[in-house]
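JOB MANIFEST
job_type = single_chain_structure
chain_count = 1
residues = 188
[input]
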Amino acid sequence: MKCLWTVASTVLLVGSALGVAPAQTPPATRSEARSAAHAWLLGLAGAYTTENTFSPAPGAPPRRSVGTATLTPVLDGGFLREEPSTEMGPGRVQAALKIWGYDTTTRRFQAAWTYTGSTSILLPSGDAAADMSVVTYEGQYVEPTTGRDTLRVELRPVDASRFTLVLWSFGEDGKERATLQTIYTRSR
């Protein structure tokens, strides 16, 4: 063992003298690989009320609804789980499950979303503005009546107790199909 330690020390010393840096040691645990982006996402954790405005097509009258959302850190703070529930009308509630994260390898924000009544999982990913004023995601999904659509999402902090999420849906032809804006207001 003493011989192995001597060889390793000699390699490090010779490498340093030649200007060769030792390889980066990976974090011992996943929680050590967290970034400022993780801290920013985890700052959104909490309970919220939501106000939703949905426009099924450009120029169509918007539909308004209210709901709640709980955002909880999971997996040692590596991800944020969102469980929103929206009142869609008398006796109709839409629930969802969303996982938000930041991949330190690709340096991109990622998410996974699914909703009541859906059998698919949307996997949007994207980038943040340098000042973290907005994170823009994009993903694709198959719409049964129109084919493959693209979803663009913007997550914007408003202040310490509010943020907005705006979704735009675009058809294969590139034309806007629908928009949804949700305003999250921290309730505790």
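[summary]
The first helix runs from residue 2 to 17.
Residues 33-186 form a domain with the Lipocalin fold (CATH 2.40.128.20).
exit_status = 0
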